[in-house]
């Protein structure tokens, strides 16, 4: 194969590789991962694998699920992203930065001693950085894991959790200003006692509600009272709850409902029929919501995010992916009737619907688009393989033809070809025309 042919072949193969649209990848089941929503993309990072929990396999994959178009949880399209973060689990993330478009990763457990306490990721340019932070840098015994980071007004609030070095359970409040890149501490007065694996979410009035968790002896904490931290006034209050109080739990999720007047909890170390509860924030009364659809397993150490009109639950511990998807969808658009569904449908409105609605079905166009993308990927990959084979075979015969041509030229040089019609030798000479340019003329002589 000539040098030029080899270069062209390699360039073509590389071009075909970059043009292939790979939108479906095999992702390992995991828990203690992080999730962050930016621009309709739910980014998932790290975590611990579940196939063999005895070896505590820690992951470093970074990928996202696109929520800008409809999909079925039975056919998920994961998209991998460049990642330089060491293997870890039990970290936490929040969105911050000057433009509120940057993912801040804090803490976590790792087997890499030089892992930084904080990393940032900018999706716009797909870049990771270790920011230079002023003040209490959160290093050493202050590096924590198994906590929930809450973002408000450019600050990331990091309460409680487990100190990575000492493994002590703590109840301090670290505050990372994601704009000024400085550390500070919040008040400890009236703060809840130490715990990790609790549930927390931000309320519309700039207050963070905390509940449940693990007390350090692997014992779950009750939800008969909740704890509220005021991010503006830097103080704590304890609020008793009433009604159908959920059982004690840790490793569960807490999310604000669409109306901002209630919160939804899911999962933890509890049975499936006890997994989902709602707390009315107007009177702090617990109740079990009306839910249609197939009830999933209660997962521990999962993540839950409200996206459009859905509570989106990703991965976790305690389910069999043979029977259930890695992603669960709870339609919470109607407070009177939640719906477990396999289909995510894009809606222009996130306000609750006025009446109960049945389990949504994907539109024919969205299903056809999905099938088309899958078929397109298969077709492109198949065409690439076939095209490469044809190119290799063609290149081989081109190489063979060039070799034969060189052999013929050695016997009959280009300057002494045979005229096919007369059997005479054609000698090529160069002459100058009146303008000084070279013209090629043929002078025939007898063979």
From TrEMBL:
Its name, as the record gives it, is Galactose oxidase
Q: Which InterPro entries match?
A: Kelch-typ_b-propeller
SUPFAM superfamilies from the UniProt entry: Kelch motif
**Source organism:** Rhizophagus clarus
Q: Which residues cross the membrane?
A: 378-398
The residues forming the signal peptide are 1-24
Q: Which UniProt keywords apply?
A: Kelch repeat, Membrane, Repeat, Signal, Transmembrane, Transmembrane helix
């Amino acid at each position: 194969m000539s040098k030029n042919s080899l270069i062209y072949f390699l360039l073509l193969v590389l071009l075909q590789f970059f043009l292939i649209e790979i939108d479906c990848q095999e992702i390992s089941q995991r828990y203690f991962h992080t999730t962050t929503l930016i621009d309709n993309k739910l980014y998932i990072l790290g975590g611990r694998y579940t196939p063999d929990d005895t070896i505590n396999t820690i992951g470093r994959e970074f990928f996202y699920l696109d929520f800008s178009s409809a999909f079925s949880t039975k056919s998920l399209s994961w998209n991998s992203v460049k990642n330089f973060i060491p293997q870890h689990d039990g970290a936490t993330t929040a969105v911050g930065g000057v433009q509120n478009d940057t993912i801040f990763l804090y803490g976590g457990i790792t087997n890499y001693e030089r892992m930084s306490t904080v990393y940032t990721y900018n999706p716009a340019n797909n870049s990771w950085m270790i920011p230079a932070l002023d003040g209490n840098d959160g290093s050493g015994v202050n590096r924590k894991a198994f906590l929930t980071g809450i973002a408000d007004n450019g600050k990331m609030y990091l309460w409680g959790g487990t100190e990575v070095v000492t493994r002590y359970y703590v109840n301090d409040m670290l505050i990372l200003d994601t704009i000024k890149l400085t550390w500070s501490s919040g008040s400890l007065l009236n703060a809840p006692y130490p715990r990790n694996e609790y549930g927390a979410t931000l309320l519309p009035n700039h207050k963070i509600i905390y509940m449940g968790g693990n007390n350090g002896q692997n014992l779950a904490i009750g939800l008969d009272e909740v704890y509220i931290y005021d991010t503006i006034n830097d103080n704590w209050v304890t609020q008793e709850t009433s009604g159908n109080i959920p059982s004690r739990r840790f490793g569960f999720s807490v999310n604000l409902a669409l109306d901002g007047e209630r919160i939804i909890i899911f999962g933890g170390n509890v049975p499936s029929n006890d997994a989902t509860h709602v707390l009315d924030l107007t009177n702090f009364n617990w109740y079990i919501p009306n839910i249609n659809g197939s009830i999933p397993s209660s997962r521990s150490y999962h993540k839950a995010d409200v996206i459009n009109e859905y509570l989106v639950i990703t991965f976790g511990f305690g389910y069999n992916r043979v029977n259930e998807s890695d992603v669960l969808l709870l339609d919470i658009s109607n407070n009177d009737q939640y719906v477990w569904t396999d289909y995510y449908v894009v809606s222009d409105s996130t306000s609750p619907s006025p009446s109960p609605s049945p389990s949504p079905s994907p539109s024919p166009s969205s299903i056809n688009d999905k099938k088309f993308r899958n078929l397109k990927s298969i077709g492109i990959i198949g065409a690439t393989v076939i095209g490469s084979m044809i190119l290799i075979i063609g290149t081989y015969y081109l190489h063979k033809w060039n070799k034969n041509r060189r052999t013929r030229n050695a016997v009959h040089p280009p300057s002494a070809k045979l005229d096919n019609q007369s059997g005479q030798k054609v000698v090529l000479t160069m002459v100058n025309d009146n303008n000084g340019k070279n013209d090629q003329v043929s002078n025939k002589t007898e063979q």
